[in-house]
Design brief:
Elements (H helix, E strand, L loop, with lengths): L5 H21 L2 H24 L6 H27 L7 H21 L9 H5 L8 H24 L7 H16 L12 E3 L3 H7 L3 E4 L4 E4 L8 H12 L5 H14 L3 H22 L1 H9 L3 H16 L4 H15 L12 H12 L10
Length: 368
């Protein structure tokens, strides 16, 4: 086997020390919040959105496609070379070292460009409330509140015959929603928009993802094949990732704040619809009868949308999606989200804590 050079070993040690330094820095959430999330990251994020936001397509999706095709080509070249020269299929020490170099460098770049936001204090710190374990009574109460809101918004949409906008129009409306929310919450200020349809809608349908953030280009991608009533809230969720809310429940909560403060019935309905389903599923785990009772009280239009959503999921049901969800859940666990995929439903705890503290004076516009 070919032995690695002294230079390669020195590079390895340097990368290991740098990665360890990042890990140590990440163990101080207050420092991350003040010096990275509120200090360095806004400049990185704005630069990426300015650099790639003007493109009419997703540069990040092009990058991922190129990396995938390049990896396939390299693998094919490797197999061809091994067959021709009848060499061992085991990689050399030098090849192993290069692989370790690559993943260490990827880890470092990922964290410096966005990933450190997983270790910040977060939106609870910014909005001055604490997440707590909620009671059964509080879960029932939030189901009652969200039921009223989602029914009210659906009735307003039907009464005013409000159509769902085109993808381009929806992106513009999302920017307006953030501008509205930023008047009350300046930390939600969103400049240099960069939200785009995903190239990978077909894959997303089968793998079960509705949107994602690319930390290497600063773009937010949305799966525009999902039912239109979900897309306003998905847009808000992905932009929240751009603003540095890395954890899924925090991005969902920030998106909820933006959508419900927008005064736009489309956005309010989208957020209340999603949150009601989360809260109702959480209730179903402890009291399936009460959860079912709430479902029977939904506006017929909301029930129809739930049927549409179930049909969408059934259409793309496949054996690969659970594996993808499992893998992504492990990724979340590795990034300070020990509940894995359940982290998404933890937004219910955020909303309950927020209502408990601000229920008497928080401004929640009524659908109009």
């Amino acid at each position: 086997m070919q032995n690695p050079s002294k230079r390669s070993v020195i590079v390895l040690l340097f990368l290991v020390c740098l990665a360890a330094g990042i890990r140590l820095y990440a163990s101080f959430p207050g420092l991350v919040e003040s010096s990275y999330t509120s200090g360095i990251y806004p400049f990185i994020s704005a630069f990426l959105r300015i650099a790639f936001g003007w493109l009419p397509f997703s540069a990040g999706d092009v990058l991922y496609s190129f990396i995938f095709l390049f990896a396939l080509w390299k693998a094919a070249q490797r197999i061809k070379s091994l067959r021709k020269e009848k060499r061992s299929w085991l990689p050399s020490k030098k090849a192993w070292l290069k692989t370790v170099h690559f993943f260490l460098l990827l880890y470092i770049i990922f964290n410096l460009m966005w990933g450190l936001n997983y270790n910040r204090k977060g939106i609870h710190y910014q909005m001055n409330f604490e997440r707590e374990k909620y009671s059964q009574a509080e879960l029932i109460h939030i189901n009652t509140v969200l039921l009223e809101k989602v029914n009210e918004c659906k009735a307003a949409l039907i009464h005013r015959n409000i159509p769902y906008p085109s993808t381009k129009e929806l992106f513009i409306k999302t920017n307006s929603a953030f501008a509205q929310a930023a008047q009350k919450y300046p930390f939600l200020q969103y400049a240099h928009p960069s939200v785009k349809p995903s190239f990978f809608n077909f894959i997303g349908n089968y793998f079960g993802f509705s949107g994602y953030y690319n930390p290497f280009t600063g773009e937010a991608q949305v799966n525009t094949d999902v039912p239109p009533f979900l897309q306003p809230y998905i847009n808000c969720h992905e932009i929240a990732h751009q603003l540095g809310y890395a954890k899924e429940n925090e991005a969902s909560f920030a998106g909820f704040i933006v959508a419900t403060a927008s005064g736009d019935s489309l956005f309010m309905y989208s957020a209340y619809f999603d949150l009601f389903l989360y809260a109702n599923r959480n209730l179903h785990r402890t009291d399936s009868i009460a959860a079912q009772d709430f479902l029977t009280l939904l506006h017929p239009g909301v029930t129809a949308d739930i049927t549409t959503l179930k049909a969408y999921y059934s259409k793309y049901e496949n054996p690969v999606e659970p594996l993808f969800s499992w893998a992504y859940g492990k990724y979340l666990e590795a990034n300070d989200q020990p509940l894995g995929m359940v982290t998404y439903s933890e937004v219910v705890a955020d909303v309950i804590a927020w209502y408990k503290k601000y229920e008497n004076n928080i401004f929640i516009p009524r659908a109009g």
